[in-house]
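Pipeline run #58 for the internal structure catalog. This entry was flagged by the ingest filter as a single-chain record with no existing model, so it goes straight to prediction. Upstream metadata was stripped on purpose; only the residue string is passed forward. Reviewer on rotation: M.T. Logging verbosity set to normal.
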Amino acid sequence: MEYNDQHISIRNWAEDDRPREKFMFRGKHSLSDAELLAILIGSGNKNESALDLAKKILGRNKENLLELSKAGINDLIQIKGIGYARATVILAALELGRRRETADVIVKQKITTSKQAYEVFRSVMGNRPYEEFWIILLNKANRIIRQSSISEGGISGTVVDPKKIFKIALDYHASSIILGHNHPSGEVKPSEADNRITKKICEAGSLLDVAVLDHLILGEDRFYSFADDGVL
């Protein structure tokens, strides 16, 4: 993309060329080192954009992030437009990257039985006096990506929107999900409404290639599993 000699602010660029917009719509891997650095800088000065400043910083550090990580605050503030606050943000981000490389890998729990899923749901719903609906997101190895609350209601029910369920599942690239909700009454037998929403969610999951492995209903100290009962 070509520009006139006169400086053009990032906010006046085409939307697809702005670092933040590229990050949001194309993903983090689409950005260069300079563009990622420009996001940390935030804004430029009167004569240079944040991207101009980012390129200048990299240029003074051999276009190498490892070299940049060795710089100190006093090195960065020599560049006009980079004050103590921005220099600190840049170096803090680089330090987080360094620590990430040495962090322990967390082994995520694998779900292979309804009892394991029940324990996960029980930890977040417990003996709540009102009804809640949660999902467990799983990867291809059936390991938990995360648990997510979908809705909460009153004593007799809660509204469940399948669109919200699958938006979350797709956002986190889940291969499968497990549904779960509680019955404050302690009764775990599924109602007609429970059967209908389970069928509806399973059909939507089939279309989106996100498998619904089970739906659990939690009582006080027991649970019902659609999968164990052969209904799913």
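catalog note: Residues 10-102 form one domain.
catalog note: Strands lie at 132-138, 144-152, 176-182, 211-218, 223-225.
status: ready for reviewer M.T.
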